[in-house]
Amino acid sequence: MGNLLGSVPLLIVFWGGDYATRVILWSIALYIMLAIRMVHYHYPGNTISTHKEIFRYGRDQTFLIFLTGCVWGAGGAVLFDAENINNLAYLILTFISMIAGSMVSLSSRPVSYILFSAPLMLPMILSMVTQDQYMYRWMGFGAAVYLFATFGFSRTVHRVIDNSIRLKYANLDLIADLQQQTDRANRASEEKSRFLASASHDLRQPLQAVNLYTEILAAKVREPEMQTDLRNIRQGVGALNELLDALFDVSHLDSGNVQVSRISFMLEDIFHKLECQFQLKAGQQGLDFNVDYGRHIVKSDPILLERVITNLLVNAFRYTEHGKVDVRFESVDGGAVRMHIRDTGIGISAENLEAIFQEFFQVENQERDRRLGLGLGLAIVRRILGLLGHDIEVRSELGKGTEFIITLPPGKEEERAPPMLNTAESGSISGSLDGLRVMIVDNEALILEATDSLLSSWGAECTGFLTTESALQAVHDGFCPQLLIADYRMPGKYNGCDFVSVIRSVIADVPALIVTGDTSDDVVNEFRRLQLDYLHKPIKPAQLRMLVSRILRRDEEQKSALSGNKAR
């Protein structure tokens, strides 16, 4: 484009007089040369796929660039007229502009620039230095100096271009390597998630059996020494339950599969639900536990937030030997609520304030004494709060206590959810199961037998099935259970939820409980969508007894209400 446009001013300036024929012939020669270069550039036979072909193409282009420079140089020779200073000024200005413009475009290959600029300038330089007037000689000398100076500039531009290209490809290599590393990390994370999902189920299965058999054994043991051994077994099993739950919680949060359900609710509802548990703990440790109740409506996920509060309170009681644990609320600008959980425990040094949120980090437990916890509670807290988008601040002074401050967004009164059910108050473990016909469906014979034995010890009449097909056949044969307890992950055509739906199509509204080792959100959401009660393995017998009692009492209340409506 520069060659095409650069010739136009010369055509205009030299059109009249004796120069017309020369400038026309020169222009025709230049345009023919440019046409040849254009054809070569777009010629379909120019396949460039190997190093040899690239070299050949570059060599041909360089030769054509040299010929173009020769045509320009010929123009400088035939149009040079020392007697016409105005025309000569246009000629010199055009040639200097061509050199300056080509230096940028051709410096990627300095030899191409030299082979273009040297034949372009040398004829005119020779024409000037051969003149009798010193002015032209000095102009020729200056043009030669300028030409050689541009060679140096061209080398500098070439280095800049070369470095830029090298950096570009180095960055592309780094990006490709980073992408490979990211892909490998993602695959490893997916494999870890799959492994942990499988391990979650497979590890919970035998632990579930241990929990149930421990409770069965407790009902049979009478000797004090054996009761001591049994208590130690329970502590060990409880520790294993706690460890597995914490590890799988961390993994589940890291997987990014946790679904957040933000609603408006009364923050104090969570503490009403937890107060009994922690007041009992405070009494056992000789501590004061105070909650400054008010009326604060926030918007968050109450289930996840309850887990955060529980972990913080457990931590506060664990590291406080004397004094108190206080909870207070503070309204701030914009309607947000700050929740303060403060203890008078051992405190945390300034250098450890960030480290406490790392997995397995414990300030006062370098010996890994399990009685002081696992060091995962605060790691889970940070992950959940990050998921919820809530800020947490830690203030602590060594030897004087620690305060955790969580800022929660405001909720709306008109959108407020009803108070959350207090499980501890909603069910009693003392309800009688005498004569209750229970159908237990689990493909693990060990767990099936343990559940059967445990419920039988509570007075229930249990019938167990290893497959959903055999259980359905029993119902079709006339067996009418009053309660279903089914494992979610069953082989065959039906999972636990499907099985309950099929049974309810035969026996309307039979109470049901699903037991699962799968903690994924998809499974939990399926339970909620179908309004099914469920428990996660490993199940504590007290949990099972409490939930069964609550299910049965709710069923009785529904039947009573239905009977009352019919009587009216």
Automatic annotation (TrEMBL):
Signal sequence segment: none
Catalytic activity entry: ATP + protein L-histidine = ADP + protein N-phospho-L-histidine
Record-listed E.C. numbers: 2.7.13.3
Residues in Histidine kinase domain copies: 198-412
PROSITE patterns in UniProt: HIS_KIN (PS50109), RESPONSE_REGULATORY (PS50110)
Keywords linked to the UniProt accession: Kinase, Membrane, Phosphoprotein, Transferase, Transmembrane, Transmembrane helix, Two-component regulatory system
CDD domains reported in the protein's UniProt record: HisKA, REC
Modified residues (4-aspartylphosphate): D487
SMART domains assigned: HATPase_c (SM00387), HisKA (SM00388), REC (SM00448)
GO function term, MF aspect, one: phosphorelay sensor kinase activity
Span of domain Response regulatory: 437-552
Pfam families, A to Z: HATPase_c, HisKA, Response_reg
Gene3D superfamilies tied to this protein: 1.10.287.130, 3.40.50.2300, Histidine kinase-like ATPase, C-terminal domain (3.30.565.10)
The keyword Transmembrane helix is annotated on this UniProt entry: yes
Residues that span the membrane, as ranges: 23-43, 63-82, 88-106, 113-130, 136-157
UniProt name for this protein: histidine kinase
Species of origin: Thalassolituus pacificus
